[in-house]
Design brief:
By secondary structure, the chain is of the alpha+beta class. The protein is built from 13 helices and 24 strands. It has two domains: about 10-85 and about 165-330, BirA Bifunctional Protein, domain 2 (2-Layer Sandwich), CATH 3.30.930; about 355-450, Anticodon-binding domain (Rossmann fold), CATH 3.40.50. Bound molecules: adenosine-5'-triphosphate.
């Protein structure tokens, strides 16, 4: 078994000034996250998910879909477009108000968010004087069709919510859901952040998992509490330690104008406590604004009371990328193995990209390889994420799997083949976090994996 070192994700590791660098380096080395357009020198605020990152992202999104949509009878899905009629963003207030303060250096012309600077008058790059603060709209503009005038301007959506509100009537008319009900959507959103930073924390192209939950105006508090609990359950399900997720009740002055109550879920990232997700009570602001601007009735008719009204909305909004960064940062571990450091990701088995790795003890023994292939095929009936590795020695294979957070490694040796008859058809199951090894039958291994990933 491995000793858990002092460094093991305790305060010492979180306070390690190099922790972000270590996470970024591991993410690249092991194929989780790559800088966007890297061979051309990159593009600020963009990152690509690599082979393992894609699976991690899918696992997070699938879990969210399961908990926020599929396990419930009151939730529906949509997949709306990124390009929408620009009137959507006029009505929602984004055209006039989705902006951040911006200052430009008079000398080097670089631009900054003054609220992110120690001295909002002095350029942090060249010490030149910073100009007047002005508002900078964060929506990306593009043009539809061949004409290039103002009438063809459209925006890349800055949040997925717009496509949910514009489909409210379609969902009501097609499926006749009873209130309360919600619409869930996962998708890309785009924000021209003035200063993208902190790896995948502040991106220009990001993914969101959003719910708009429609309720009677009098029922908003109960729904707010339910979704608040759900967000904590989701944090737990993806493996975020309870003590690292905090609620911040956003004060009246700091809330968006449409919100009557907002809680920011914050996370202790290596660079400080920052917003992970948001939960907002948006009143009837959105449906009323879209109804007015589109001249479409966006109401709900209560069949029992015959009352017609505009539903109010609770919105849990979760960034996929910030979730993944929180997962990587809190799962990163270093064990001091007496001079050598063992690095591993203590990922929750449910979201780990690879659930188990199967390998033959020696790759030049055909009988071991054949048996190992057989075991892998058997285990893949439980889950496709059962990997194969026969490169290098067993120690090296374990290290590689540790770094990508594979919870179990399974080794097939001569005893599996029956060298000592009492051990025939048993394998070694090695646990990622402790290094502990057990001798188990193949059905027992299958049972261990299934119960861990449920
Ligand atoms: P911040 O104050 O950090 O800019 P925000 O309050 O503007 O965030 P929201 O508009 O509430 O964020 O967006 C909902 C969620 O989308 C956030 O809680 C976060 O998880 C995610 N998100 C927002 N902006 C970004 C971004 N630039 N990069 C990555 N994720 C983001």
């Amino acid at each position: 078994m491995y000793p858990h070192s002092e460094l093991c994700n305790n305060d010492a590791l979180m306070a390690d000034a190099n922790l972000m660098e270590k996470i970024i380096s591991l993410a690249k080395r092991r194929g989780f996250v790559f800088p966007g357009s890297e061979i051309y020198g990159g593009l600020a605020g963009t990152f690509d998910y690599g082979p393992l990152g894609v699976v991690l992202k899918e696992n997070v999104e699938r879990l969210w879909l399961q908990m926020f949509r599929d396990d419930r009878d009151d939730m529906y899905g949509v997949d709306a477009t990124i390009l929408m009629n620009p009137k959507v963003w006029e009505a929602s207030g984004h055209v006039s108000g989705f902006s951040d303060p911006l200052v430009e250096c008079e000398k080097c012309k670089k631009r900054f968010r003054p609220d992110h600077l120690d001295d909002p008058k002095k350029c942090p790059e060249c010490e030149g004087t910073l100009g007047e603060v002005r508002q900078f709209n964060m929506m990306f503009k593009t043009q539809v069709g061949a004409t290039a005038d103002e009438s063809s301007v459209v925006y890349l959506r800055p949040e997925t919510a717009g496509g949910i509100f514009t489909n409210f009537k379609n969902v009501v008319d097609s499926l006749h859901p009873k209130l309360p009900f919600g619409i869930a959507q996962i998708g890309k959103a785009f924000r021209n952040e003035i200063a993208p930073r902190d790896f995948i924390f502040r991106l220009r192209e990001l993914s969101q998992m959003e719910v708009e939950y429609f309720v009677k105006p009098t029922d908003w508090e109960q729904a707010f509490e339910e979704w608040r609990k759900m967000m904590h359950l989701f944090a737990e399900a993806v493996g975020l330690p309870q003590g690292m997720v905090h609620e911040l009740e956003v004060s009246d002055g700091d809330r968006a104008h449409y919100s009557k109550r907002t809680i920011d879920f914050e996370f202790d990232y290596p660079f400080g406590r920052k917003e992970l997700w948001g939960l907002a009570y948006r009143t009837d602001f959105d449906l009323s604004a879209h109804a007015g601007a589109s001249s479409t009735e966006l109401t709900y008719l209560d069949e029992e009371t015959k009352e017609k009204f505009v539903p109010h909305v609770i919105e849990p909004s979760l960034g996929v990328d910030r979730t993944i960064l929180a997962i990587l940062a809190s799962a990163y571990r270093e064990d001091d193995m007496g001079g050598e450091v063992r690095t591993y990701l203590a990922l929750a088995p449910k979201i780990a990209p690879v659930k188990a790795m199967v390998s033959p003890l020696l790759k030049n023994k055909p009988e071991l390889v054949a048996k190992a292939r057989e075991v892998r095929a058997e285990l893949r009936k439980i889950h496709p994420g059962i990997a194969w590795d026969d490169n290098g020695n067993i120690g090296k294979r374990y290290r590689r799997q540790d770094e990508i957070g594979t919870p179990f490694c399974i080794t097939i040796d001569f005893d599996t083949l029956g060298e000592h008859s009492e051990l025939a058809d048993t394998v070694t199951l090695r646990h990622r976090d402790t290094g502990e090894q057990e001798r188990l039958t193949i059905p027992e291994v299958a049972e261990r994996i299934s119960s861990a990933i449920q």
